[in-house]
Design brief:
mainly alpha; 9 helices; about 80% helix; about 0% strand; flat
């Protein structure tokens, strides 16, 4: 048989519940309030930092070179700083300053590494580092910097690694990487380039 409580009993039950657990409820509400406040504060803080970094980056693009240092010092992990470092390394390479470009790219790699890093910028940094090592015949260092992408589906990474392995004299491994690149490319002109590289290895 179901027992129906009166309205007064229900109210008393609720009052007793809040009386017994009032401290736990207050602590929970306090933690929730602090967490919510912190979330909005941090969100606003990072948005403001992004706006500031964007303005400094635009000034850098307009030719204000001192803003590059400001980006590095004030916004070291900003995407705008990463773009500026990539641009700086490209300009250094145009001037054939490979050692300085390598240093800039290594800084970019370090800044974008890790779980909370920027995987796209990290990949671009590693690609350009590998290309510099290939141009200076430091083949083992090129392979090492690309090791992270051993199981990557990007055919260009396979092609780049194959070039380095070929330079090291690891012909069989180089062939495997070239074949993986050929399989991955959908562009026929790129496939033909890699097939030519593969045929040169097989001679």
């Amino acid at each position: 048989m179901v027992t129906y409580k009166t309205e007064e009993e229900r109210v008393k039950q609720i009052q007793d519940f809040f009386s017994d657990y009032k401290y736990s409820i207050l602590i929970t509400l306090f933690i929730f309030g602090v967490s919510l406040g912190s979330y909005f504060f941090l969100q606003n803080f990072f948005e403001q930092k992004t706006i500031e970094a964007s303005a400094v980056y635009n000034s850098y693009l307009e030719g204000s070179s001192e803003n590059l240092d400001k980006l590095k010092n004030d916004f070291p992990r900003s995407g705008y700083t990463h773009l500026a470092l990539l641009k700086e390394s490209t300009e250094l390479l145009r001037e054939n300053k490979k050692d300085k470009a390598l240093q800039v790219l290594n800084n970019l790699k370090i800044s974008t590494d890790g779980i909370f890093g920027n995987s796209i910028m990290n990949k671009l940094a590693r690609i350009n580092i590998a290309r510099i090592h290939l141009s200076t015949k430091n083949y083992s260092q090129a392979v090492e910097i690309l090791e992270k992408y051993s199981n990557d589906s990007d055919p260009f990474m396979h092609e780049l690694k194959a070039d380095a392995l070929k330079g090291m004299g690891n012909i069989e491994l180089a062939k495997e990487q070239y074949q993986a690149a050929i399989s991955g490319y959908s562009d026929e002109s790129l496939k033909r380039i890699v097939m030519l590289k593969l045929s040169n290895v097989e001679i």
